[in-house]
Amino acid sequence: xxxxxxxxxxxxxxxxxxxxxxxxxxxxxxxxxxxxxxxxxxxxxxxxxxxxxxxxxxxxxxxxxxxxxxxxxxxxxxxxxxxxxxxxxxxxxxxxxxxxxxxxxxx
Length: 107
Fold this sequence. Notes:
Layout: H1 7-21, H2 37-64, H3 71-104
């Protein structure tokens, strides 16, 4: 199972990340500006989990000697999983920092 990079998907993913970074967050199925943060965070966690599971399955297939899995695809999948985990960890750290700062405020 050799993974190829689909330029159209890559471009759309990059555009989605750019719009999220600029604050123009669009959530599928939502017409108002209200964003369900818990659902958004849950989807992000599931995405990271899926990336890690895919990475593990590719690594196992490569270790078994599957001719359809090459080393570069395994390394790319592992790097994607690592980067998505690190990004999620940074979001968690910032949320914890914000929570602690709010707790320090005098009400």
